[in-house]
Structure formats: structure tokens, C-alpha cells
Design brief:
The protein is of the alpha/beta class and 258 residues long. The protein has one domain: Vaccinia Virus protein VP39 (Rossmann fold). 41% of the residues lie in helices and 20% in strands. Strands 3-2-1-4-5-7-6 form a seven-stranded mixed beta sheet, sandwiched between helices. α4 links the parallel β2 and β3. It is globular and about 50 Å long. One of its GO terms (biological process) is methylation. Keywords: Methyltransferase, Transferase.
């Protein structure tokens, strides 16, 4: 049985290793939640896509305690840790790559926002249109898709894209040489060595292989094709961006920017 204390210990380590790659992680979380709050509803319904252990979801509830957050992921280990550490969250074991995942949520009303951080680049480029169409269809008019991720522009601005990666790599190197020895791989190796986590680890397949959708243009095009009225960047630090897409509301004129 995975205890609350054990799960919180693992997730404290998870947050520390994530911050090694994303020193501005909390700043990005804050910007994303600011955008959800700006929708003006004190009790928004929010979908956290590829939520992992619920790091973003729990911060959303801390800021917006009347919100309803549905945290969606397919990794049994991360879901088990999240459920044990954050009993206040509602987790849904669904694969975003599978058709019909949105219907599996059984939502009673359209969502106000769908959010994600450092997850959707694992969806292959070929799968982005279907994913974003399902997101579009479950959002209310004027609802938001907010995706914080590493999104590159090497197809349109190759020199800037290279410089963005250099800045990111230098920043990451400084973080890990300044007292953050556990990286992403080390965290998973430690998980593998813990017998209490073995039942969940055995169920896990390594999904971090194959094609990744790393280009900003791929996501922007798929969002437009899905029917979103506006697409643009709300926040940026190098190639780390908070991409926002707005579902057209009543009386709005469709526009798009990238």
C-alpha cells in the first residue's frame, strides 16, 4: 500500500528534479493559472491534460479552491503517486492518444479550460489534430487551451531556435552543478529500485520514445484546424512557451496568430 507520506516524499523529489530543467517552472504555473482565473469564473471546470502526478492540478486548486479539476494521465506509477499524495484531486486514467478519451470523462458541463505542462510534445505530430479537436469540442465558447511546453521554431527562425536551445542548455547545466544532482533519469532509476513501487512500475510502458511534436508551428496549425479562433503565446522564456488557444465565443470574429 502506497502511503500518503511516501508518495509526498517521491513527489517532493519529482518537483526538485523538474525544477532543474525548468527553473522558471513556478513562474509558468503562475502565468497559466492567472489566465484561468482571468476567465472570471470562481468555480471553473479545468482539464489537466497529461497531468503526471498532479503538480499543476494541485496548484490550481490552491489558487482556485472552488474549481473542479480533472487530472488526466495514463501512467500507472504517476497516477498512483498523485492519488496517494493529493487525495483532493480527481484523476482520470485515460490515454490522450486514444479516440474517445474526452467522452470517457463523463463531463456534466463544458470545460472552461484545458491545461497542460511539458506533456503534449509527447503526442506525435500526426496525433495533434485529433487531440486538439476533442479538446475544442469539450470546451465552452470562449474557453481556453493553455499548453506550457518546450516549443521550437527551427523551421521558421533557425538561428533564434538554436540560441534558445543554447540558453536552455546553459541554464540547465548551471542548475544541476549547483546542488541538484538528481535528474529525470536518476529519479526513475530510484523508482525502479523501490520494491513498494514495483506493482505500479510493472504496469508502466515507456511512452517517451518515438516521434515528438516539438515545433510551435505544428501545434499552432493543429489548433487552427481544430477550430480554435485565436492562437498565440502568452508567456515565454527561451523556447519554453505558454501557448494559448481560444475557442470562438458568441459574436466573436475568428482570427489567428502565431
Amino acid at each position: 500500500m502506497l502511503t500518503h507520506e511516501a508518495a509526498r516524499g517521491w513527489l517532493d523529489r519529482w518537483d526538485r528534479q523538474q525544477e532543474g530543467y525548468l527553473p522558471d517552472r513556478e513562474e509558468r504555473f503562475t502565468a497559466l493559472i492567472d489566465a484561468v482565473e482571468a476567465l472570471g469564473r470562481p468555480d471553473p471546470l479545468v482539464l489537466d491534460l497529461g497531468c503526471g502526478p498532479g503538480s499543476l492540478s494541485v496548484r490550481l486548486l490552491e489558487r482556485l479552491p472552488r474549481a473542479s479539476v480533472v487530472s488526466i494521465d495514463a501512467d500507472p506509477l504517476l497516477l498512483a503517486l498523485g492519488r496517494a499524495a493529493y487525495p483532493q484531486l480527481t484523476f482520470a486514467d485515460l490515454d490522450l492518444r486514444e479516440p474517445g478519451w474526452a467522452e470517457g470523462l463523463g463531463l456534466e458541463r463544458p470545460a472552461d479550460a484545458a491545461v497542460s505542462t511539458t506533456a503534449l510534445h509527447w503526442i506525435p505530430k500526426s496525433g495533434l489534430p485529433a487531440l486538439y479537436k476533442q479538446v475544442h469540442d469539450v470546451l465552452r465558447p470562449g474557453g481556453l487551451l493553455l499548453n506550457g511546453d518546450h516549443l521550437q521554431t527551427e523551421d521558421v527562425t533557425p538561428t533564434l531556435a538554436r540560441l534558445e536551445r543554447v540558453l536552455h542548455d546553459r541554464e540547465t547545466e548551471r542548475m544541476f552543478t549547483a546542488g541538484r544532482p538528481e535528474d529525470w533519469r536518476s529519479w526513475w532509476e530510484a523508482v525502479d529500485a523501490d520494491p513498494d513501487l514495483a506493482p505500479y512500475r510493472k504496469q508502466r510502458s515507456d511512452d517517451h520514445t518515438g516521434e515528438e511534436s516539438l515545433l510551435l508551428s505544428s501545434h499552432a496549425l493543429a489548433l487552427r484546424e481544430a477550430g480554435f479562433a485565436e492562437v498565440g503565446t502568452l508567456w515565454q522564456h527561451g523556447h519554453k512557451r505558454l501557448l494559448c488557444a481560444v475557442k470562438e465565443g458568441s459574436g466573436r470574429t475568428e482570427t489567428s496568430v502565431s
